[in-house]
Design goal:
By secondary structure, the chain is α+β, with helices and mostly antiparallel strands. It is built from 9 helices and 12 strands.
């Protein structure tokens, strides 16, 4: 059987069609009450969360997440104007909360009618999890509202006890088997993103965590879905270049990643 490029293109379109349908069915589930998720809406907030994490303390957190940012067991991982990231403890489990800040009145005015960044992160994380791309398990998102207008929001995910890719590859020389295994897994993860018509948008080394030789992708603020292959291919080329620039001070590692990417794309 002579396989032609048209056959491959037809197969890829069919795979994408059914992948898209599978996601559309699941997307409805993560936005309503179901066996796995709970939706709770009031005049002042909208909350979606994973039923498996519900407890009295978790309920207290959902009602007032700000209280946990000031708790003595909380560790602030990042304190920026746009967002604040905290590691919190609930029911003897560590979680990470990303609070999306409103920087000013005008910033709040621009964002009040748009979907919040926490809701977007919830959707992207659920999508990646559904299709087997390693990411911290999404647990909840909270939107604060005022007469239907959105303001501050929170995205809650599992805590990953790992180090970012830059520190990991400083630890292991290029000839070590550990590096080879992790590097191949990273490249596989990156090449799986465009299969979902997604581009991460910020592939710096700190957005890839390594836990037990498993790469985990984080930070979904810049993720974009592309409707056309032209736009997707252009974005993917930029993604690869951005990723390779991480290793410009380690030319051997940069060449190694470049070879792996070219090899897997053949």
């Amino acid at each position: 059987w002579l396989v032609k490029q048209t056959h491959i293109n037809t197969l890829q379109k069919a795979i994408y069609k059914w992948t898209k349908k599978r996601w559309q069915d699941y997307e409805e589930k993560i936005q309503r009450n179901s066996t796995s998720f709970v939706r709770h809406a009031t005049l002042t907030s909208l909350t979606m969360y994973d039923r498996g994490y519900y407890s009295a303390q978790f309920k207290k957190f959902l009602a007032n997440p700000e209280e946990f940012f000031n708790h003595k067991t909380t560790k602030i991982l990042k304190a920026g104007r746009s967002s604040t990231i905290a590691k919190i403890k609930i029911d003897d489990r560590y979680l990470v909360v990303k609070r999306y800040n409103i920087k000013s009145f005008w910033h709040g005015l621009r964002r009040c009618l748009r979907s919040t960044r926490a809701a977007k992160s919830w959707q992207i994380a659920q999508r990646l999890t559904l299709f087997g791309i390693p990411t911290p398990k999404p647990i909840a998102f909270i939107e604060k509202r005022f007469f239907g207008l959105r303001s501050k929001s929170y995205f809650v995910m599992e805590y990953i006890d790992g180090i970012h890719a830059g520190k990991y590859f400083e630890k292991y020389p290029i000839e070590q088997e550990k590096l080879n295994v992790v590097a191949k897994r990273i490249v596989t993860m990156l090449l799986n993103l465009p299969k979902l018509r997604l581009a991460h948008g910020d592939l710096k080394m700190t957005n890839i965590l390594i836990e037990n030789q498993r790469p985990v992708l984080i930070d979904f603020d810049g993720v974009t879905e592309y409707q056309t292959l032209f736009g997707l291919n252009r974005a993917f080329r930029e993604e690869v270049q951005r990723f390779l620039r991480n290793w410009k001070k380690q030319p051997d590692l940069q060449s190694f990643f470049k070879e792996l990417i070219n090899e897997q794309m053949r």
